[in-house]
Amino acid sequence: MAFCPAHAPPMLMHPLIDPILQNALREDLAGGDVTAEACVDAERQASATALAKSPLVVCGAPVFRRVFELLDPEVRFAALVAEGEKVSRGTVVWRVTGRARSLLIAERTALNFVQRMSGTASLARACVEAIPAGCATRITDTRKTTPGLRMLERYAVRTGGAHNHRDQLGSAVMIKDNHIVAAGGIAVAVQRARARAPHTSRIEVEVTNLAELEQAIQAGADIIMIDNFSDELTESAVKRARELVPRPLLEASGGITLERIRRLAEIGVDVISVGALTHSAPAADISLDFTVA
User: Fold this and answer.
1) What is the pLDDT of residue 76?
2) Beta bridge pairs of residue 250
């Protein structure tokens, strides 16, 4: 059964993804494909199936399809499992049919994208499933994304069932350690942000110890990121936040592993941000197997 995340992944609109995919095709085809052009008749027809060679969460069907379409609009695509579905090794997930040359030329570019996307979605799903039943803790990504590929990586995070953090620097006020140093302290940084930010924006402050946590509370931060806190310090931070009305949201970040997620959720943090979702997720193993007409 397909996994149904609380929030469906955002659509990947062609005007947004086409430049990314076209650049990747140009990178691989600067000199054409001498092998396919030399060995395969121009009108030879073929079918190819994308095979999961390990358990994974399927992600990237719109991208996989579009790579082939951009190269050859006559290629036909079929999704054999739903986007976001967890499949076992040996599952056929997609099929493309058309000119054999077109399938061969686009193969590696298409697989490069979806192997990364499915790997990210698979890790996101594992993190979400580590949250104990009844806990409202949210798993999010970070801005530690591959330059130029953020849109696809964030889509993969959502497909895995996790959430996205701020998309870009202009999306939210997030006062981190270097902002605090440059501004002259937490209180002055929050004060200046409050004076400048729209009334619709919440203000997040990163802290590294309980003293800074208290400063952020006194400054009126709406969200406090507790960075690299131990479980014991996290418990203290959650206890302090629960004394407040209204209370700030607490986001745990830094040193997050799959094994720690359950414990942090049980302690009661509101958000766990996991940079590894986009910077360290291993690529899923997907192959493309051919048959000719």
Assistant:
1) 98
2) 224
Number of compact structural domains in the chain: 2
**What pLDDT is attached to residue 11?**
76
The pTM of the whole model exceeds 0.85? yes
Of 252, 281, 278, residue with least CA distance to 266: 252
Catalytic residue status for 270: no
Catalytic residue among 69, 85, 153, 206: 206
Residue 39: give its domain's CATH number.
3.90.1170.20
* 153 noted as active-site residue: no
Query: Collapsing DSSP states into helix, strand and coil, what is residue 174?
Result: strand
Catalytic residue among 166, 176, 192, 194: 176
Q: Is 71 inside a domain boundary?
A: yes
* Residue 242 structural domain: 163-273
Domain CATH number, residue 198 = 3.20.20.70
Is residue 33 annotated as a catalytic residue, yes or no? no
Catalytic residue among 85, 141, 153, 227: 227
Domain assignment present for residue 267? The answer is: yes
Return the percentage of the chain with pLDDT > 90, whole number: 93
DSSP secondary structure letters along 202-260: -EEEEESSHHHHHHHHHHT-SEEEEET--HHHHHHHHHHHTTSSSPPEEEEESS--HHH
Is 108 among the residues known to form the active site? yes
Give the confidence band of 292 by pLDDT, cuts at 50, 70, 90.
confident
193 occurs within a structural domain: yes
Q: Is 53 a catalytic residue?
A: no
